[in-house]
Amino acid sequence: MSVSVLELVRARAADGSVPGAREDPYRLGLAIEGGGSRGTYASGMAVELERRGLTRVFDDVYGSSMGAITGAWLLSGKAEHGTSFWWHPEVMPNVIKPRAALRRKPVVDLEFLMNEVYQRWAGLDFAGVLAAPARLHPIATDADSGEGIDLAPHLTDAESLKLALRGSAGLPLLAGPLIRLDGRRLLDGGLTEPIPFHSALRDGCTHVLVLRTRRADERPLPPSRMENLAVTAFLRRTAPAALGAWRERTRHRRADDEHLSSAGPLTQVLVPPGAPEVSRLAVDPALLRRALDLGAAAMATALDIET
């Protein structure tokens, strides 16, 4: 590898090239980790990329769960505007509603998030995302095979993109009925590929910048006994083929951490040690704003390190 990921980012920023008209032989991917409300950290990193005019340096953008949504906002050219809705007083308390489970309603209301918040209030240009020079790759889990799936080939219009983003973020048990897209039933991409750099490498990316939503000092832990029992029961009823992915999730995440820590075509930007814990169902506006700012600062630090 003759050039590092960040060296390639800087070189492309300097030459002003765009996807499809590069002056180098490389393919640069951006991979954005999921994690529900922890996605505020990666959102801040994406905002810093946008502030510096670096969106155009990437040829493809991969995202799992909330990472796919962050990728859509980045490709729309309005990442900073979109992230401001994390702490809007009418948004998160109406998207994440733990007590809704008592009424057998979705705890995470992705339909409200996509159609009301992003389309009506925030004005996310779904068609514009699909027309962007770089291609968006939302990663989901196929409920009937239990395998990860790149939904990019299924994105034909604004409605299919909205369904793909909801399907990619469809947390088992919490997000309600499974989304269907082109005959496929979809579950959260985090079951099979929470950090979607594998898809980027399989697609031929020579370099991948990875935006993380976990701290540098944070090791993936298995789910609590209660969560494991509840999700296992849900998957047995709804998507038994995905049970293996659920059971192996923690082991795979630890393997991903090890892979990302080694030298090669991957560079990750991690949440700094000591940053506040943000659960995937966090709704506190001050906490989410703090996480976004720390994510932006982490990205700025990575970009400003001299090589």
Automatic annotation (TrEMBL):
Keyword annotations from UniProtKB, A to Z: Hydrolase, Lipid degradation, Lipid metabolism
GO molecular function, one term: hydrolase activity
A biological process term (GO) from this entry: lipid catabolic process
Record-linked SUPFAM superfamilies: FabD/lysophospholipase-like
InterPro entries: Acyl_Trfase/lysoPLipase, NTE, PNPLA_dom
Residue window of motif GXGXXG: 34-39
Active site: S65, D188
Name of the protein this chain belongs to: Patatin family protein
Lineage of producing organism: Bacteria, Bacillati, Actinomycetota, Actinomycetes, Pseudonocardiales
